[in-house]
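Justification of resources, computational component.

The compute hours requested in this renewal are based largely on the per-chain cost of generating structure records like the one below. Each record pairs the submitted sequence with a full structure-token output. That output is archived, and it is also reused by downstream analysis tasks.
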Amino acid sequence: MSGSGGGGYGGQFGQADFEVTCEKLKIDTQLSSPNPQVVAQLTVGTILRITQITSQGSQLTVAMYNAMQAGGIASPYIQRLRDCINNGTTYVARVTAINGGQVRVSVYAI
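The structure output for this chain reads:
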């Protein structure tokens, strides 16, 4: 029984990805693998540029500050974000909280 409920939930996730237009896609998340040297320069409200890079054969979506990688973007909507970037939508991330080395950001289209 519980298996069939899980399958329906997964379908809802997929539908939600494509119901949101690229311009309205917003992701609130924590930076993954934050760079301590960059984090030390950030304050709440700092704007980071979102870009895609290739590292060791994998495509990564990252937040950049002054041409330095601040950290990665991880989200259930990461593929939708990548598709939107590939189709020409530009995104930035605003730092919403800093707690030690952890950085929360809000990613949105500009």
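The helical segments are 2-19, 36-39, 78-86. Confidence is low (pLDDT under 50) at residues 1-17.
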